[in-house]
């Protein structure tokens, strides 16, 4: 189960990604928003990150206008490794090196087809472990 959420700036792309994932048989919990009224992106990051942290969902996708604000907010939440991805290479590395449990996308930055490729790449990549796990552990030491 994947968690997904957006603010108004990511609302359209978020909805397209939900449909795309569901068409591939991937279960998605859509935490909203459910319309394009203006909201504050930190509020939208919280339910998705909580679902990842409490393991209700395996990973999360967050979308705002640029992906920047929502990724900054998500990375303030203990346990979250949120990667802002606007290209496929970064999406692959986000899993292989950083073991990102959330990816963030810019609904006003990338088109839907690129977004689908980014999501697929991140979902299908594997964390490489080894030295990368040590580095990820050091990231979490910064939380304390
Ligand atoms: C909302 O206008 C916009 O600031 C937000 O979606 C996001 O781009 C913030 O980083």
In one word, what is the shape?
globular
Mean pLDDT across every amino acid position: 98
The number of helical segments is 6
Quick one: CATH class? Alpha Beta
Full CATH superfamily name: Sugar-phosphate isomerase, RpiB/LacA/LacB
Class by alpha and beta content = alpha/beta
Share of helix among residues? Answer: 40-55%
Radius of gyration: 14 Å
**Strand portion, in percent?**
15-25%
For the biggest β-sheet, the strand order reads 2-1-3-5-4
Distance between the termini: 29 Å
> What number of domains?
1
Name the hetero compounds present: D-ribose
Reading the helices and strands in chain order gives EHEHEHEHEHH
The major sheet is characterized as:
5 strands, parallel
The CATH topology corresponds to Ribose 5-phosphate Isomerase B, Chain: A
The overall strand count is: 5
pLDDT < 50 stretches: none
What CATH architecture would you give?
Answer: 3-Layer(aba) Sandwich
């Amino acid at each position: 189960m994947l968690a997904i959420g957006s603010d108004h700036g990511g609302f359209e792309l978020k909805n397209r990604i939900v449909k795309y994932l569901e068409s591939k048989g991937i279960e998605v919990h859509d935490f909203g928003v459910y319309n394009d009224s203006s909201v504050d992106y930190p509020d939208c990051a919280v339910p998705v990150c909580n679902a990842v942290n409490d393991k209700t969902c395996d990973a999360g996708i967050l979308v705002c206008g640029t992906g920047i604000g929502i990724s900054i907010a998500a990375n303030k939440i203990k346990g979250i490794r949120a990667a802002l991805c606007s290209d496929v290479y970064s999406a692959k590395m986000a899993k292989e090196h950083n073991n990102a449990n959330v990816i963030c996308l810019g609904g006003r930055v990338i088109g839907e087809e690129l977004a689908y490729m980014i999501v697929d790449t991140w979902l299908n990549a594997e964390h490489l472990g080894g030295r990368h796990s040590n580095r990820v552990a050091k990231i979490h030491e910064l939380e304390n």
